């Protein structure tokens, strides 16, 4: 369950979900079927609502041994106007997130609680992904420093929150923010991105799939 980042296909028409399923099938000798419930415009608000109220979504999750959650990139407008100092390098991550996307953390708690409830105690491999930061090195950014001066703090705050909440709910976090952007998240992710510099390219899609495969699904052993 993700947004356009999850829906993006590589040059052979595969998403990182498809590649991960193939790798996992090779590792385990078990057929892994992808049920992609992603939507280009998905937000954490929307996903929390779907898990609470949409029968098809609830049925799909109840039947899924592996559940991946990758939403939040659409929760707020990075080009919007925020109070001075919002998500500045010296601001605490939680304060950044409270201003930029105030429902993000609460929604992730709701999303993971709903998944746990729908799975009714059955072994489940729940995976939560990091945010990404395409603004470093992107010509469409408001200015050359935007990706570090502002959006780095947003991506780090969303990643920290998602990973923290995942851990509290027995899920595992897939951090591709620091694969694409290096250890401090400030490198230009261009090698991992498509020509739009906003979505993953072949290398990025493969990198996320490989990280998912590296973590594996020990919960299902």
Descriptive tags:
about 220 residues, about 45% helix, globular, SGNH/GDSL hydrolase family protein, hydrolase, hydrolase activity, SGNH_hydro
Structure write-up:
The chain has 221 residues and is mainly alpha-helical. The protein has one domain: SGNH hydrolase (Rossmann fold, 3-Layer(aba) Sandwich). The protein has nine helices and three strands; from the N terminus they run H-H-H-H-E-H-H-E-H-E-H-H. It has helices at residues 4-7, 16-28, 44-53, 55-62, 93-100, 104-119, 146-168, 177-180, 202-215, and strands at 66-69, 125-129, 172-174. A three-stranded parallel beta sheet has the order 1-2-3, with helices on both faces. The protein is globular. The protein starts with a helix and ends in a 6-residue tail after the last helix. The mean pLDDT is 97. This is SGNH/GDSL hydrolase family protein. One of its GO terms (molecular function) is hydrolase activity. It holds the Pfam family Lipase_GDSL_2. Keywords: Hydrolase. It comes from Nocardioides agariphilus.
